[in-house]
Amino acid sequence: MDERTVYSEHPETTQWEMLMQYSYELNVAKELSRRRHSGPESLPAAIAGAFSQAYEYFHTSSASSLYTSPLLVYYGMANLLSGACQMMAGSLLEVEGHGMSMLPIPKDRPPEHLADVTICPSASATGALSVFGHLLCPQLDISRLGDWTLSELFARIPDLYDEYYGFYRASFPGLIPVARGTDGRVVVDRVEPELLERYPQLPEALDAIPGLSSAYLDPQDVNMGGHRIVLYRRSSGSDITLRAVSGSLFLCTGHGPTHANPAPIQEILLYMTSFALSFLSRYHPELWNPFVKTDFTGERLVFAKCVDVTRRTFPNLVLNQLLGYSVEFGSEREQPKAIKI
């Protein structure tokens, strides 16, 4: 996806200003026409209403504490996806239920970490996860996603990297940070020495990255100035890295017992994550309220950062889907180009 930079000193505000153009029925009708869609007469109102409600939920969540903000963010995400996906489909969507559930939490054996709870995607074709997932990523097969712990989802959110790996100390990384450079015209990504010290099994983790062999030449071990792994991008290889809002780049490992299944796109991964947080806050107050009020381990900070990250990144990702290019927000204005006279 191409990138375009938009000047903004307040990206979270600016992205909603761009999204809220779709809260007006006339603008929605124009966009549907541009996309050559001819849906039912009620479609523009349904889409505009979904965008308006999404904004209200997100805006309200920013002034709410962790007791309720996950639930508000999830409702906002559901409405935002509903509006965007109906715009992309050009029709009213039939959605029944969340399209996922959580494994029961034994009352006599609470999890060691709250992030150990398990999310189970449903194979239902009309579940929200399947409906939205198919429109955002047609090749995504929800029925093959498998079950995920909340911790496994956390581990694959780029902007949560420092908080997650600082607290959970995972033995096998879900994300591998890379530093990018060039060698002539060739894009080169490298894994730095400190990461190899933290994860001795990193070569095995690289093998668990779906699409690595088609994107890069064989990884090379380099010992110049410290041991590192260097990845040379193939001339025809696509960019399979994930970019954090900070600009940091990551490679994402696969999921499952053998790490063979690709992780879903970030929009779906964040949606599943937010569902789990909202479910805990709504249906397990006996766990959630004490966790928010008295957690002394530091895990609460990971959950709070996840809500903040979702509030900032998810609308941006949906905006990208609607525009067809990646919007990067920058605080420096583009300098005018010199014109020869």
UniProtKB/TrEMBL annotation:
InterPro entries listed in its UniProt record: YaaC-like
Stated name of the protein: YaaC family protein
Pfam families linked: YaaC
